[in-house]
Amino acid sequence: MEAHNKSGADSKTPADGHPCPPSAGCSTEHWKSRSDEEWQEALSPEQYQIARQAGTERAFTGKYWDTKTPGLYRCACCMQPLFRSETKFDSGTGWPSFYVPISPTAVSEHQDRSSFSVRTEIRCGQCDAHLGHVFKDGPAPTGLRYCMNSAVLDLLPDSAGQHG
Ligand SMILES: [Zn+2]
Known about the structure:
Blueprint: H1 28-32, H2 36-42, H3 45-51, E1 71-75, E2 81-84, E3 88-89, E4 97-98, E5 107-112, E6 119-124, E7 130-135, E8 145-148, E9 153-157
Antiparallel strand pairs: 1-2, 1-9, 3-4, 4-8, 5-6, 6-7, 7-8
């Protein structure tokens, strides 16, 4: 049996770069199929190191650790909404901290055994970017502390005039 191989029929190969801008709201599967090379091009070196290589920014150096501006924190990689400013609290750690994500599917949890104790890694539910970790020493009502990296967050202030 001969295969019906037509030259140039390999349509599964994605086009160069990501075909949709973040605002296009493309599907989760689309985001997760993005290659390391594509991410490296799209992100700053610091963002790439944190989001794709599970890095951590230095405490008290990120742009949002002490931010109190009302607004919506989105994933800096795919612009999916992650946290509301109302759930942000001053954890004293030097990283932006929240007690609950904006929805249960906004983030995903993964076991992280890279340090002495097992920690729970938090990733973006849409593009799988590493965001930080969750700890069980947060305030009421959840008792959780989502310890995030500023570099992989993007704050959309409420004053930007987006409603609905
Ligand atoms: Zn994302």
